[in-house]
Please model this.
Amino acid sequence: MHHIINLFIGFSLFTFLGQVTSGENNMGKEKMLRYLALGDSYTIGEAVDKNGRWPVQLADSLRSRGIRLSDPVIVAKTGWTTAELAGGILDAKPEGPFDLVSLLIGVNNQYRGGDPEIYRKEFRDLLRQAIAFAGGDSQRVLVLSIPDWGVTPFAQNRDPKRISEEIDHFNAMNRGEALHNGTHYIDITDLSRQAITDSTLLASDGLHPSERMYAQWVERALPVAETILRPTERD
Model:
C-alpha cells in the first residue's frame, strides 16, 4: 500500500509539472500580432537610425502597453511614388493578413509634378490593397497625411508656398479616399510644419523628419492603433 501511495503521489506531481510546462509553452506560443507599414522615405526613415523610424517607434510604444506585436514588416523606399510603391509590393510579396496596416505615400508624386488625378487613382488602388492585407477589414488600416517639406531648408530655394498648397491638395485627396473606404486618417502635416521654427524636428539632411518628429507622429497615431489591436489580442 505504501508503494502504491508513493506511486500515486509521484504520478500526480509529474502530471502537475507537465501541465505547468505545457502552460508555459502555450504562453510562449501565444499569437503575435502583425503590422505592415507601406510608404516611402518617411516610412523607411531616411536619415535616422533604424530604431528611430516611426513604424518601429509605434511598435515599441504598443509593446510597452502590453500588446504582443512583432516587428513591423516595412515595404518602403526613399523616392517612391504611388506607382513605385505598387511595384515594390509586388516584389516584396508581403503575406497577410496583418492586424494593422499603415499607408503614407504621395510626397514624391507632388515633388515630381505628378498629375493629382493620377495620384488619386493610384492611391485608391494602394488603399484597397492595404485593406486586403488587413484581411479585408478597413478599420485595421491607418492612412497618414503627407508631411510638408516646403518648410524645410531644402525647399527654401524653391517655392515653399506653392509646395504647401500642393501638399494640401494631395492630402485632400488621400483623406477623402481614406474616409470613403472606412479607414482611419491620421493628420500629421501640421506637426511637420513646426519644423519651420524648430530645427530639432529635422534630420541632418535638412529635409527628412528627425526621430523626435517621428515620435510626435507616433503620439498622434498611438491611441488609434491601440484601439485597433486590443480587441484582436483578446480574441
